[in-house]
Amino acid sequence: MTAQDGFSETRSDLANALGTFLIADYGAKSLSEGDLKPYHRHGVDYGWRLPGDPPLRLLLDRAFPYRPPRIALEDEAFLLVWPHVERLGLLCVYPAETNIDALSPDQVAVHLIDEARALVARSKSENHDAAFRQEFQSYWSLATDQGAPIYRSLVRPHGPTRRIRAWRGQNKTSLIRVLGETDDALCNWLDHANGPAPREGWKLYDAVLVWLDTPLIPDAYPVHASDVEALIRESAGRDRDYAPLLDVSQTTDVLIGAPVETGVCFGAVYIERPDQKKLQKGFRPGHVPAAHAKRYATSPARQAKKAIVDRIDPAWVHGRDHDGDIGQLESSSVLVIGCGALGASVAVLLAQAGLGHFTLYDGQYLDRTNTSRHPLGADYVDQNKAKALAKHLTKRFPHLRGVDDHDAHVDIRVIDKLPSLDSADLVISATGEWASMSLIADAARSWDVPLQTIWHEPQALAAHSVLTLPNGACLRCGFDRLGKPLLEATLQDETAVWRRIPACGGAFTPYGAAQLAFTSGFCASEALKHLTATPAGARHSIWVASDEVLAAGNAERTAAFKSEFDSGPHGARVSRPWALGAECPLCGPHV
Fold this sequence. Notes:
Strand order of the largest sheet: 12-11-10-9-7-8-6-13
Number of helices: 18
CATH superfamily of the largest domain: NAD(P)-binding Rossmann-like Domain
Shape: globular
Distance between the termini: 77 Å
């Protein structure tokens, strides 16, 4: 017998034992195969009817006994009448992530039945408006209509009621709508998501955002165009008239939004273009009176189909409305010089955090051996790293405001011509080579933007982030004239660390993506600090691995590091003012 057979047999025994218990203690009756058939798509294969007012059904799916049973009413009569009732009458008694004692299914069932009956009792006696509003997204999804488009929204999650713009497309099975504030916002997203295309090839349409003070309850969900018109007029006020958008010449896309304590909720409404033959009936072609057309536009003949909205705006993608830094990050721009494994990994992390704009510089091309550490894979081999990273970022995050890429080494010929410096909020130098690091740092003395220089020590056992500000200490303040840091975190035998390959001058240090994850995460988090809070001064931050990891790499912490930081045996993350007391060949002495 296989292990799987053993688990199946045990599950069957537990289910039968639970059934015996329910029949004896609750007067339950087993559900027939016909009774269970509607629940098959939920994986249900056992069930019992529990007498009561109303009767309940206890159902076991394939996750039993490791997840709790489901409780259901006998029909959908209370769908959108009582809260916490799903399709097929399933009750939302426990959150899906609830942990239970898999070895005591009878005790779990007793507690579940008690909770379900208490939920039904509350449902009979309480006003449910607050619950329906607070969990609007769930209940609206239960009211959606077949045939409505798939909606994706870039629209800013705030009022007032206003005109927005819509792109209309279609796949093999569904209509698709992408909603945004402006044509530029929509075209930018479409460029990134679908690949560049002529903007004149995309026809965009007017749509409406109806912004409400509180979400709708099910009884108020719009059914006809007249219901939508009433919502528009109520929310827009008398000084603005969006009703013409409901005219008979087009279909209409309406986004309905409202705030709740836990964020912003959205629903969409699709109003089809009226049947032109019916509209024209009784009138000469092209001579339908305006008053008749207006009445027809909002008549019960025009249904308002409700649809789910997939939010793709930054506030939702990056934090689900709960990250207070998103607004600032989305409006920020970073220039990354060096798109190797460290620089590219940091850029990806910043994009995941919600940064809005990147300018990328690198003159190298991705080699197949780079893919073991670089966030770009085999699809980008032999492509310029900056350009390939730009494609990667915009494909993953089409809501980015923009990514500019440059196939160029930042050398003496380029350094004075860098674009985006006026609009950048931070420059990240991630070349890892003193020749370019020092050039960038020297040039940055005349920039009006902070410079973050990042590098890691051999085997990625430690990482450094140095933030220098305009008119302050420069990068050279913490290095000797040959580019050796005045403070290193680890002591390693570099002759043993560097591995040679069968090529002239070829060498590398043996570390992989797992080790890089620590250093890139550290450097990205330092960048986010600088972007979301005004730096007080030049800063040197260091991450170093634990003593155990260092020992595995035949390394240890340097005496200078241990004398300055009491970091203990575990991995450390420390910081200090940059190069206080040092005398810089460019800046002179620092106090």
